[in-house]
Design brief:
With 158 residues, the chain is mostly helical. The chain has 2 domains: 46 residues, no CATH class; 103 residues, no CATH class. The protein contains 7 helices and no strands. The two termini are 33 Å apart. The mean pLDDT is 87.
């Protein structure tokens, strides 16, 4: 949802009121554009096919490069991994815009040990995973890493 809205409940309520006939406008334009999530304009324009295409291309790259090779205990297959992958897509779209292929991005993060106990299945593990992937993609600098992240990246933590 963070790709299209900063307040999905408000959007839902506004659309429900529109559906009940309180407004004559039958599009999503009534939602306005006060915030600017990366895919907001496509959503407001009801360009759902374009949104689907972006998600399809991105997760196709994820599937082929990461998921198909992942072990069953890999955090990238778990809820926190998928959540972080959406965060990564948001960062890609914010920095580089819509891409024809996301392979180069996913290839940059394929050598991470996603089965490591470093990424405990918790909020802390999600934060660590997000930092590691954003660093590997060049979205954050080494200065933003924790010392334990640096140890993990150097192979000292398995």
């Amino acid at each position: 949802m963070s790709l299209i809205s900063t307040n999905s409940q408000k959007d839902r309520d506004m659309l429900a009121m529109k559906k009940n006939g309180l407004w004559n406008d039958k599009t999503r334009r009534i939602l306005g554009n006060p915030e600017k999530p990366v895919l907001r304009q496509l959503y407001l324009n009801t360009d759902d096919d374009k949104i689907y295409s972006i998600l399809d291309k991105y997760f196709y790259s994820v599937k082929v490069i990461l998921w198909d090779k992942a072990t069953s205990d890999s955090v990238i297959l778990k809820t926190i991994g998928i959540s972080v992958l959406f965060d990564i897509l948001k960062s890609i779209l914010e920095k580089d815009g819509i891409q024809d292929s996301y392979d180069s991005y996913i290839n940059s993060i394929k050598d991470v040990n996603y089965s490591s106990h470093y990424f405990a299945l918790s909020g802390g593990g999600k934060t660590k995973l997000r930092r590691i992937l954003k660093f590997k993609l060049g979205f954050i600098s080494e200065l933003e890493l924790q010392d334990s992240d640096k140890e993990f990246l150097s192979g000292k933590i398995i």
